[in-house]
Amino acid sequence: MIHPADKSGQLALVVAEIKQKGQPSEPAFDTWNLPKKSHRMTSLMRTIYLCYSFGFLLSRTTAVSLTAASVHDESLLPAPILYGVHASSYSTEVVRFLTQVTTDNIGLTGMKFFSITRSFVLTVAGTIVTYELVLVQFNSFQQTSPLNMTNVCEVK
What we know:
Helix content: 55-70%
Largest sheet: none
Pfam families: Trehalose_recp
Number of helices: 5
GO biological process, one term: sensory perception of sweet taste
Order of helices and strands: HHHHH
Oligomer: single chain
GO cellular component, one term: plasma membrane
Shape: elongated
Protein name: Gustatory receptor
Radius of gyration: 30 Å
Distance between the termini: 69 Å
Membrane topology: Multi-pass membrane protein
Structural class: mainly alpha
Number of strands: 0
């Protein structure tokens, strides 16, 4: 008997047994012993896991993106308060801070190529949805049309 930690050796023995006898003496994988109903359950469990992991990934990405976008949103909050400063308290520091808050683009960036704002997150989400819709439409056209894909752009 092979040690359970030695999976490659066990697999080699099972393959050798199959070549000699036509079937292994003991199953190499647990799923061979499961009845057909369990295979459907395994498929159902995989589907549930896929949906759960995709939803979790999507919600985590959305949360991180919106949190990054909130940095820009929070940077705009001091401006109305600074505009409301009374004239007796108005000083050079208030003017400098107000100028900095209103003119600087404060927020997280992607190597200063783009700033992550709510509008940027919405634009990226819209682009992804549009791309997926184009892929779905192209796939349905490709499945229903017997034409060669090089002839798609030809005018008839």
